[in-house]
Design goal:
With 503 residues, this protein is mainly α. It has a single domain, classed as Sodium/glucose cotransporter (Up-down Bundle). Helix 1 packs across helix 8, helix 8 crosses helix 12 and helix 13 packs antiparallel against helix 14. A hairpin with a 6-residue loop joins strand 1 and strand 2. It is built from 19 helices and 2 strands. It is globular.
Amino acid sequence: MDSQKIQILISMLIYMVAMVAIGIIFYYKTKDSSDYFLGGRRLGPWVGAISAEASDMSGWLLMGLPGLAYATGFGEAAWTAIGLAAGTYLNWKFVAERLRKYTQLANDSITLPDFFSNRFHDKSKILMSISALFILIFFTLYTATGFVASGKLFNSIFGLDYIPMMILSALIIVAYTATGGFLAASTTDLVQGILMFFSLIVVLMAGTIAAGGVGAVGANLSGLNGYMDWFAVMDPVKKSAVPFGAISIISALAWGVGYFGMPHILVRFMAIKTTQEIKRSRVIAMIWVIISLIAAVIIGVVGRAYLGDTLVGGDSEKVFIYLSTNLIPSLIAGVILSGILAATMSTADSQLLVTSSAISTNFYKGLIRKNASEKEMMWVGRLTVITVAIVAAFIARDPNSSIFSLVKYAWAGFGATFGPVILFSLFWKRTTRNGALAGMLCGGVLVILWKEVVSKLGGIFAMYEMVPAFLFSTLAIIVVSLLDKEPSKEIQQEFDSIKDAKI
């Protein structure tokens, strides 16, 4: 290993040790399950905003999205970024404050399954159980994408074997998440969010300069059919333009509606100290998101102008890595490449924590051992983190796995399973327990069926599985709720009290 790579490795190791140290510090500050899973509802505006967005934008922001732009051009990547930015704003604007109030007033719910159960006074615990099960399924898949990104990172830079490096990264993430819980995850996410932002800006500037400036980038790419077209994508193999029509645009924009159902983001809303701080958090979050998404897409485009056809197939997702190592001094490159670890860790830690809270609180205590102590629940949560990480690592064992494709699948799963249920739970008093259950099952199951079976038919059926699953979930909630008897007066009074609640 040459001196350049040694310097990069030293920077990255220092970063990883710092993250584990934060976990250890918060291990001694975590007193009960509320602290471990929700941070005692005391996140400030900066930590709340940046940790929410860092946990949202996983390794795909620095690898998957630039890789998509590099391989196929501006179109799909840009429409996806627009959908994500719009979804982020709408989520902060309409969901954050009401969810923060409702989860506290509904028997102080500390997990999303808790909220569903308490919102509908579901004594059978079926909503809690089904939602916890879907969280387990889709987050295991989602967590695997973070491990894939880490393995590819170390393999690309140092030539080290993919599997050992992927496992090492997983162990580090598990170490600080299992020890420090929510406060450790949120604090590290703040650090990681700042690092991701810094990394994107530096690499964008360095890449643009190396490619000869904005004008040169445009000139170099003008000959690639469909590459810079809003309504076409370039076939990376044939180098020909492929139409990016209405169905494709709707599918790309549909990423935005997924935000309403993302447990690892919604839990940040639940943990903010007071609703008065949400507006400030929203401004911070939107500035971070808009600049980061624009930078990520343009990095892929600039990378294509600078590297040409150097990266093919799955290697297109390494464009950020190549620009960093080739254009930036070693020590700084080490810090910047830690941004990929930051993106990976900030999402994986949140996903592992939400999964562990769902299993320990909603499965273990809710169904198996109702008298479980606070200490016992925290240890069950830690064991869950370890177990889910092992399964996710097994899924991530293939170095050719596409980060973008895996994230896309898991994103649809959460968006369609929980998004409509969250919106109707918060804003439609007539929603019933059975309606929520029907929507949840319809959304989650249809995502899997559409992805694995229906999409193979092609044509209109090739649309992103989020779209039909979200629509059918919405329809199921409305129809079943209207056919069901009205919610009790107690539930309706609780619903009405949220608007004027001062929290």
